[in-house]
Specification:
The chain contains five helices and eight strands. The chain has 151 residues and is α+β, with helices and mostly antiparallel strands. It is elongated.
């Protein structure tokens, strides 16, 4: 299990008229996690309250939020401005393509030999270029670009 945060003190924030997101916690270092609404779910604890599955809310270019409803606030006895101890992990980690899968794709596309004939520096650059993308969809687009280049 890969933790997004572990035993970290975060503020329970309040923003008037935000519907379910009026009370929320902003999860640090999550702005680069990519996923469609409903596909990014977390589990963990807020203080001692166990979270089974809750959606991460994305805001473009900002860290993700989790909504803290009245039931949770009553259980942990906290309100806006209070700090809570948060531990969260992704339930469905982002699938990313591995180096092995990249090479297999190059082989199936009949460009592996051309890839292998490149310098180590060029090969490393291509692999890093693909792996560094933060979504499988973007990785696939770059793999297709390199297959065209290597053809």
């Amino acid at each position: 299990m890969e933790f997004l945060i572990k035993n970290q003190q975060l503020e329970l924030k309040y923003e008037k008229d935000k519907g379910a997101w009026t009370y929320h916690i902003q999860i640090p270092n999550t702005k680069d996690i990519v996923g469609k609404w409903g596909s990014l779910k977390v589990s963990g604890t807020i203080d001692e309250y166990k979270i089974e599955s809750i959606n991460l809310f994305s805001r473009k270019g900002e860290d993700k939020l989790i909504s803290i409803n009245k039931k949770i606030r009553n259980e942990i006895k906290k309100d806006k401005g209070d700090f809570v101890n948060v531990t969260l992990y992704l339930l469905n980690p982002i699938n990313k393509i591995t180096e092995k899968e990249i090479l297999q794709t190059f082989e199936e596309s009949a460009v592996l030999l051309n890839f292998q004939n490149l310098s180590e520096e060029e090969k490393d650059k291509i692999i890093k270029d693909i792996i560094s993308e933060n979504s499988e969809e973007k990785q696939i687009k770059i793999i297709l670009k390199y297959i065209n280049i290597l053809s």
